[in-house]
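Example 3.2
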Amino acid sequence: MRKALSQNPNMLRTIVGLGMTLILILSYAVYSATLDSGYYLATTTNDAREVVVTEDPENGSYTFSTEDAISWINISIDNAPPGSTMEVTAVGGIWWHHPNLGMEMDNNVPFQCFTPNTQDYEGIVENCVSSAQHSKDIEDGVASMKGILTSELPLSGTWAILSDNLTSASNEINRTLEESHLSRTWTIRILDDTGSEMNTTGTGVKVETVHHGLVSIEPFTIDPFTELIWSMTALVGCFGVALILPVTLYLAALARTKKAEAELSPVSESEN
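Structure, written as C-alpha cells:
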C-alpha cells in the first residue's frame, strides 16, 4: 500500500474525498431521522388523592373502592395492636406488591416492579408478586404497603409510544387509559397471630391512590441542527481514525522518496 501511495498520490485524495462524501450522506441520514422519529410523548396528570375509608374497628375491617385509571396505591396504618398482621384484598383484579416497592436500592435507583428483559429486550420481567391479596406484618403498631394496580400506565406520568401518526398514537393512549379504568372493592383486615379478626379501635388507616388523566400528546422532537453537528463530529472522528493508517503510509512514502532523491542528487552532480 505504501508503494501504491508513493506512485499514485491521487489515491489519498480519492480516499479523503470518499470519506467526506460518506460523512455528508450519513449526516444527512441522521438529520432526516430526527425530523420524524415516529415516537410520541403522552403526559398525564399523575395526581395523588386520599381515599375515603369505611371503618369497622370492632371487627378490624376497613373498606373502600376505586374506579379510575390508577397506577399506585399506598396504605398506611398506625397505632395497630402489637403482633398483628395487615391483609389487603382487592375484588375486581390483581395488583402487584413487593416489600421494597417505593424504596431506593444500593445504587440509589428506586426499586422497579417491571424491568426490561435484558436477554432479548422484547419482554418485561416482573419483580413484584401479582395477586388479589397481599399481607404484611405490623411492627411497633405501624405499617405501610405500596402496590401497583396496572403495568400499562406510566408511573412517572409520562411515557413514549411508537406509532405511525398522531391520530394512531392518540387512539392507543386513550385505549390504554380506558382499559385501566377498573372498578375494585378493597378490604383491609387487621388479624392477630392466629389469623383471626381483632378489635382495632383507635387504629388509624390512610389510603392514597395516584390517578392518571390525559393532558397532552405530542410528537417527540429534538433539535435537528444540534443532532447534525453531533453526528458529523462523530463521523469525522470515525473516518479520521480510519484515515490515520493510509495518511501515515503516504507521508512515510513521500519522505522516503525525498530522502532517496536527496541521496541521488550528489551522485548525479559528480557524474556530470
